[in-house]
Structure formats: C-alpha cells, structure tokens
Amino acid sequence: MIYKKNKLTIEKLDIDSIIKKYKTPIYCYSLAKIKENIRNFKNYFKKINPIVCYAVKANSNLGILREIKKNNLGADVVSGGELMKALKAGIKPKKIVFSGVGKETEEIEYAIDKNILLINAESKSEILEIEKIARRRKKYVNVGIRLNPNTDAKTLNQISTGKKENKFGVDQKMFLQLVKLVRKSKFINLKCLSVHIGSQILSDKPYQKMLNAVNKIIKKSNYNFEFIDLGGGMGIDYEHNNSKLNFKNYSQNIERFLKTNNSKIIFEPGRSIIGNTAILITKIIYIKKGYNKDFIILDTAMNDLMRPALYGAKHKIIPIKKTNKKSKKSYEFVGPICESTDTFSTVKNYQKLNEKDYLIICDVGAYGMSLASNYNVRPKPIEILVKNSKIQVLRKREKISELM
Ligand code: LLP
Questions:
Q1: What is the CA(198)–ligand 1 centre distance, in A?
Q2: How far apart are the CA of 60 and the centre of ligand 1, in A?
Q3: Domain residue limits, the chain
Q4: 96-98 and 118-121 as β-strands: parallel, antiparallel, unpaired?
Q5: Residues with Cβ within 6 A of ligand 1?
Q6: Could you report the per-residue pLDDT of 339-366, keeping only the tens digit for each?
Q7: Cα separation of 68 and 89, whole Å?
Q8: Could you tell me which of 230, 149, 223 has the C-alpha nearest to residue 191?
Q9: Which residues belong to the active site?
Q10: What is the CATH T-level fold of the domain 2-29+275-403, as seen in this structure?
C-alpha cells in the first residue's frame, strides 16, 4: 500500500476506485502481500525446513484459506468449525494440527475420522477422552502434548499464554506423567511436544527461554518426539517504526536446538502471515467538537475491529488523500457504537479532516474480521481481495435482513 501522487493505492488499484464500487466499511486484502509474507516466512526458516500450519483463527475466510492452501501451507485449527473450513479449502488432513483446551467429544471424533496430522492435547482429561474415542474406533491416533513452559512472552497480558497462571498446556510435572501414561497406550501414538507462549511477540528472547524449557523437559522425559510444534506468535510492525522480530536469531536458536534433538519443527503462524495484508476502509460520518479534541466519528466500529477495545491495541489510521493542512486540535477516532471503549486512537497534529472523507485503518488482516460481531445489530463488512488490478469479493456485506 503506497501513496501515488498523494492518493493511496493497493497493488494496482486506487482506493478511490474501490470506494466507488463498494459501500464502506470494506475489509480489503492484498494477494501479493499474502504471498510475500508466506515467501518471507519460509525463507526465514529455510534451514529448518518446518511444516508451516497457518493459524486459522487469525482469519478464517474461505477465500483466504484457499490462497493459503495454494501456497502450500497447512493449518492449525482450534474448533470443529475451523477444521471443516480448512478441509473445505482443500488443505490436506496430514497438514492439519488441532489445538485448544476444550475440544468436545464430537470435535475429537471428527478430527480422528479425518486422520489429521496431530491432536495437540492440553490436559489429562483430554488425553483420556482421545484414548476412549480411539479405542472405540480401534485406531492409533497421533497426539501431541502441549507444554506450559512458564515463559513470559513479554507481550500484552491478554494475549500471553505461556505463563503458569494461564489455562494453556500442562506444567512440567504433568507433562512427564502424561508421557508415561501415553507410552503405555495402544491407541495413542505420542508424536509431538507442542508449545505456544503468546501472540504479537517482537523479541526473540522469550522464544529462547521457551526453547530452553522445551529442551529441559525433552531430556527429562527421555522420549524422542517426531515433531516439536513451536506454535506461532511472531509479531508485526503495527506502529510502522520497524519494530520487528529478529527472525534470524530465532531461526539460529532453533537450529542449535535441533543439533541435540532429532525432530521436525512445526510452526503455527497467524498474524505474521495475514496481519499486514489488509486494510479497513472507512468513511467519516460526522466530526463532533469535544472537550479539547474533535471526535472523528467513523462508519466502522468495535464490532468490525475489536482489537483496540479488547486489548488497547493500536492500528495506524491514515487518510486516502494526503494534504498539507494540519488540524489544530487533536482527533479521537471513534465508531458509532454505544460504548466508550468504541474508540480506535487519539492523535495529535493530524492532517485536517472533513466529514465524508475516507480513511483506512491499517494491518487488520489478523484477528480483524475473525473477531467481528453483530453488536448493535450492525451487519459485518464486505471483504474483498485485490489481485493486481482485479477484485474478488471474498464475502458479501451482511444484510440487515439476515440479522432479524
Ligand atoms: N497457535 C496457538 C495455539 C495459538 O493459540 C495462536 C493464537 C496461534 C498459534 C497464532 O498466533 P499468532 O501467530 O497469530 O500470534 N486476538 C488476539 C490474538 C490472540 C491469539 C490467540 N492464539 C489479537 O488480536 O491480538
């Protein structure tokens, strides 16, 4: 996405031309960017040659999943619904891993019947449930156990998953117990140790700590895991100030880890594949004078993009036409929803804006549409995919009549 003669463009298209065709708000993705991210990801970890399972929760649009498939990624799913979508997109079962703390019986049955690569179990109860189902079906089921490495991912608290107080995985003691238990089972084939410490991680240090914890537990368990699933969590540059995870260091640390562990690495990246591939195009409905600032009231809201309200996350907001006029007042960008948390950001020294101007909210590809809701009976936005100078509608705008 770049400005050409002060007008914002995505691939070969003017944002202006998109607005003429579709009513805002619009989730607009770039195919070139998706491909570039996948290429880069594979390159960063070339020496490791991992199995890359895209985390479907980040964006589960079927059209997006089809592109992910075309680029040879597998899938990491966390529900029967996500599994069904991944399969529908054509992703091979042998490239799908299933994570999550609360898999229900029917979901486990479905995963077993589809012969997916791995079910990553997160508790003793779940292991027992998988064993029960596998016994009924007389199958030998491939399973991983998720370790809670008690590692602080140093990211937002709400999206941290690897500390002992979090609900995810099992602690070291339980992990060793489960390895013993599963070794004796005729129905569970223990193949994987999995771990995922959190999301939007920008430093390689927590990952190094995680690897140390994994190394330690492997030695203690005296078991050769065919797969080590290191989860996802690689952060992206929301601030547009080049804050970036040092993939080279992370990769080198894994290479070192693999010198003493003969396993295949699995990754489950979501945000790093899809996060910066989309923008949310929005119109200013009104500008309202407030105390010490002006409210820029947009036609998009927290129901379309939940991250700012939910985590205090920041997304850059930029105008589709650049001018040199500056506003004297600060702007607070808000949506029309009846909640004070329906606010995106407050910015000083912004370019002067007018009612009916268009703006874009950046980097909304991950956990944007997948977290969207119909709060306030608001229809979900249209999603489109830009391919060079062409547009594919990925999902139509919901009609209010569908919400009755
Ligand atoms: N694997 C597991 C087991 C996960 O729980 C997650 C994300 C991922 C992989 C993918 O993580 P990623 O590479 O996308 O960071 N809604 C929040 C993020 C929640 C992440 C949940 N788990 C947000 O908008 O920041």
A1: 7
A2: 13
A3: 2-29+275-403, 45-269
A4: parallel
A5: 55, 57-58, 76, 99, 159, 161, 196, 199-200, 231-234, 268-272, 307, 311, 366-367
A6: 999 999 999 999 999 999 999 999 999 9
A7: 9
A8: 223
A9: 338
A10: Lyase, Ornithine Decarboxylase; Chain A, domain 1 (2.40.37)
